[in-house]
Amino acid sequence: MYTPRSAEWFVGDSEISVMHRVALRNSGVTEDLESGRPLIGIADSSSTLNPCNLPLRSLVEDAERGIREAGGIPVVFPVMSLGEDLMKPTAMLYRNLLSIEVEEYARSYPLDGLLLLAGCDKSLPGALMGAASANLPTLAVVSGPRAAGVLDDTRLGTGTALWRADHERQSGTRGTAAWKSFERALACGPGTCNTMGTASTLAILTEVLGFMLPGTAGAAAGSVARADAAYRSGITLTETVLRADPADTPQRILTESAFRNALVTLCALGGSPNAVIHLIALAGRMGITLDADTLDRISREVPVIADIEPAGAGLLADFDRAGGTPSLLHTLDTLIDADLRAADGRPWRTHLRAAETVSGQSPVAPANGTEAQRVSGPVAPANGTEAHPAPSLDAPADDTEHEPSARPGHLAGTARPIRPLTDPVAPEAFAVLRGNLAPRGSLIRLATAPDLRRVHTGPALVWHSYAQMRREVHDPNLAVTPDTVLVLTGAGPVGAPGMPEWGVIPIPRVLAAQGVTDMLRISDGRMSGTAFGSCIVHVSPEAAIGGPIGLVQTGDLISLDLDARSLNVDIDAAELEARLAARVQPEPADLRGWPLLYRRHVGQADTGCDFDFLTAHTPEQRRVVQPVVGLS
């Protein structure tokens, strides 16, 4: 007979049990707490400060309804809302803090299962890392991608369109009026990025790993399908908890085979480079070493078949309409292990279905930019009245400046969002590079760097801080050519701190005006999953802990050989040692608090940037120590 973990808090006639039952009665819980029904914790990360996660607020009732119908008792608790837009220097600084918060909620409270409501980039991996360490049955529901804004009859891919438009502004082809109209069009309502950025990539990988219901990762924010996903997730999670099968716990689900499926999927998506760091960290919680070289080998074997920005032409709505994750895995065929468990406990092969060709207009946002609408024809206004054509948000005509579309294309999107293996978007997604500049590795997303020269040597132009780079990069007198290699240091986990997405160094205005659209850029920071270009990121070890990238000086020759997977600076070992000995590391500004703790315990990119005291290399470290349930 099933006995929930929470029974230790509630069953009995002691003063302690009475106190616990009264506490939840006072919170409005009316169910019989001695009935043996499991308590399912709903971790709600919604916040007005975080538009990506804001739609989660409306999903709580749907999830609660599903939990109750399946025989559970829902309880909602708030968790930190990690928003990429407004949280500085980066939400990545707080991913590990969120994981601690979720783990300790699960350990200290009477919870039998966890439903994670997440959205923006770091909120999903952070919550999943905490849940994995707590080892309670877990499912996740995401807020879903927002609808697309429209400009010049072109759908705007969140993030990706911004980077393109800013380059046009720096090159002089997008003037002030067009820049303002672009801003209005980009304000298209709540939800996560509608491109294959980090949020979308992580949602799909979470689905593949077995923590999200099949086919739900791409359902749009605010849609009926999204609400239904929350409701069904509540049912499924409660049924899983009642089944009381140890095979349904994270430590049994997150196997080496499961992570291999995730890496294959990541490559097929041409997904966010940030996902590599998060997968390594999640694997580390399970005692699994997931090195980047494994990703490099898989990338050589698995082509990019998701035709979604920034690697492709479509948006997440197209991917979802084509069949989503089940259709992507069906297309990958024998490249994935379809016998592994999906979130409903059934093998993945029972969910696979052929990808569909997409026709007709894809979802776009209403003109006022309030709430994203999910439609398959003309745009439906928020009040549900008669549909109207997709709005154009062009600025008034300006005789002195050209106002190009932010993205070539049209409202219909791409006809084949999931391409066959024989006709991929790109032959490979990633490359892991090593050498005396990156002894422990670095990463480049090849799928979004079509103009990358496979062999290149050029002089370095080095900035040792983000502030210095922003001050100087658009200086009209900047000494730079298209062959120059732009280098930014001080952007790593310890140096920044938190490893912000500073690796997409802008093309200097002096070159953009000449028509240069890409050049080689290197950083110990990260890059946005929605960005593109020849950006080598995650250089490890970082400059702040003595990594060679911090020893590079302007004028040093840097060489890339993609086929050899090498990245080197033309300096001999003796000179590097001399520079290291002479280098004075700047003192960190933070002398207390979270940033200080973070700097002392965070790992490098090649270990997932997790804390040394959170990784679990042995079974003993993975053992969950339960609290003493008594007087608090």
Would you spell out the secondary-structure blueprint of this structure?
Blueprint: H1 7-10, H2 15-26, E1 39-44, H3 60-69, E2 73-78, H4 95-108, E3 113-118, H5 123-134, E4 138-142, E5 149-151, E6 154-156, H6 160-171, H7 176-186, H8 198-209, H9 224-243, H10 250-253, H11 256-269, H12 274-285, H13 292-301, H14 316-321, H15 324-332, E7 430-435, E8 438-445, E9 455-463, H16 466-472, E10 485-488, H17 509-512, E11 521-523, E12 535-537, E13 557-561, E14 566-569, H18 573-582, H19 593-601, H20 619-622
Parallel strand pairs: 1-2, 1-3, 3-4, 9-10, 10-11, 11-12
Antiparallel strand pairs: 5-6, 7-8, 8-12, 9-13, 13-14
Helix pairs in contact: 3-9, 4-5, 5-12, 6-7, 8-11, 11-12, 11-13
Features:
632 residues; alpha/beta; 4-stranded parallel β-sheet; 20 helices
User: Alpha-carbon distance between the termini?
Assistant: 29 Å
The whole-angstrom Rg is 25 Å
From the structure provided, what is the oligomeric state, counting identical versus distinct chains?
Answer: single chain
Indicate the low-confidence ranges by residue numbers. 367-410
Task: Tell me, rounded to a whole number, the average pLDDT.
Answer: 91
Helix content: 25-40%
Tell me the total number of β-strands.
14
The number of helical elements comes to 20
What structural category arises from helix and sheet content? alpha/beta
Query: Strands of the biggest beta sheet: in what spatial order?
Result: 7-8-12-11-10-9-13-14
Give the CA-based shape.
Answer: globular
Largest sheet: 8 strands, mixed
| Percentage beta strand | 5-15%
